[in-house]
Amino acid sequence: LLRVFRIALMGNTPCFGFLAKPKLTTAYWDFRGLGAPMRMMCIYAGADCEDVKYEALKKPRGSGWVAPVWEKKDKPKYKKSNALLQLPYVINHSSGEVVAQSNAVYLYLGRILRLNGSTSQEQLANEQVLFHLHGMWMELRDLVYPFGGNKDEESFLEALGNHFTTWLPGHYEKLEDWLRQRDTPFFAGQQPRTADFHVWELMDQQEAMAHAYEYDSPVATYDKLQAFYSKFRQLSRLQPYFEGQDSRLPINNKMAFFK
Fold first, then answer.
1. CA–CA distance from 42 to each of 49, 110, 127, 129, 193 (Å)?
2. Residues 25, 50: contact at Cβ < 8 Å?
3. Where are the alpha helices (DSSP H) in 163-220?
4. 53-75: buried (b, 16+ CB within 10 Å) or exposed (e) per residue?
5. Residues 167, 172, 178: CA angle, nearest 5 degrees
6. What is the C-alpha to C-alpha distance for residues 44 and 197, in angstroms, rounded to an integer?
7. Going by DSSP bridges, is the β-strand pair 89-92/97-100 parallel, antiparallel, or unpaired?
8. Is it the case that residue 3 has pLDDT exceeding 60?
9. pLDDT at residue 226 above 60?
10. CA 157 to CA 192: how far, in whole Å?
11. Inter-helix orientation angle 120-144/153-162, to 10°
12. Among 75, 89, 69, which residue's Cα sits nearest to residue 27?
């Protein structure tokens, strides 16, 4: 009985679910970025969660940025519990666990909020899509921040054309084919799973950037992706997020070319 009880608390099993609602703190910068998927997951699941947002400030002298609350206060404190600490992170106050690294955070939240999939097939699909998205996000990061391949605004603007005509369609074709192969409305099945929150956020960022620089909608020629993008946005359990301030945060940090 004890073993069954422990599994029910840790996994996707609905048994004893009413006992498994931990007090959480999520933390990231004060923009959407990699923080938006975990914020949406918590709203969708009705989690008992506080979200901490750190601000980057320009150095008063010279170039560069500082984040005093993160760098001087919270990072040293929580690094005592997790040597790999970085943003985003999540603290489970009920268990004392401190989890960092974006995909680990998403999967951890998915596990305790029962969003990683109800079958082994769903879990496998969820994980594959999630890890594909990390590479997709890294390429986007290198496009919009000056510490990537583009060192100034001019080079960023020049790179946008190739981004929207070559790089992004390559990813969207894979995601479109994935949905077509599985014939499901979401990326792991009939219900939203962890990866769906990350997919939607990346797609929405791309739509916003295309609109800002007068490019066509990137998703316009992908029927399955369009259906997913619309269906996810209309989920009733996510309307508090879309109607709240978190959905209106800047997409990227202050030093990015596209914010």
1. 7, 9, 19, 20, 12
2. yes
3. 168-182, 194-212
4. bbebeeeeeeeeeebeebeeebb
5. 140
6. 10
7. antiparallel
8. no
9. yes
10. 35
11. 140
12. 89
Calculate helix-pair angle for 35-45, 194-212, nearest 10 degrees.
130
Q: Nearest to residue 208, comparing CAs of 198, 199, 221, 218?
A: 218
Contacts of 27 (CB under 8 A, 6+ apart): 51, 52, 53, 54, 74, 87, 88, 89, 90, 91
Tell the residue number behind the tokens 């992706």, with chain if given: 225
pLDDT, one tens digit per residue, over 36-59 is 999 999 999 999 999 999 999 998
User: 23-29 and 97-100 as β-strands: parallel, antiparallel, unpaired?
Assistant: unpaired
Q: Name beta bridge partners: 28.
A: 53
Long-range contacts of range 151-154, CB-CB < 8 Å, 24 or more positions apart? 153/257
- In 3-state terms the chain splits into helix, strand, coil percentages (rounded to 5) of 55, 10, 35
pLDDT at 20: 60
Q: Which of 136, 162, 139, 161 is nearest to 149 (CA)?
A: 139
pLDDT of amino acid 63: 81
SS3 sequence of 117-135: CCCHHHHHHHHHHHHHHHH
- Give Cα separations from 89 to 52, 78, 163 (angstroms): 10, 10, 30
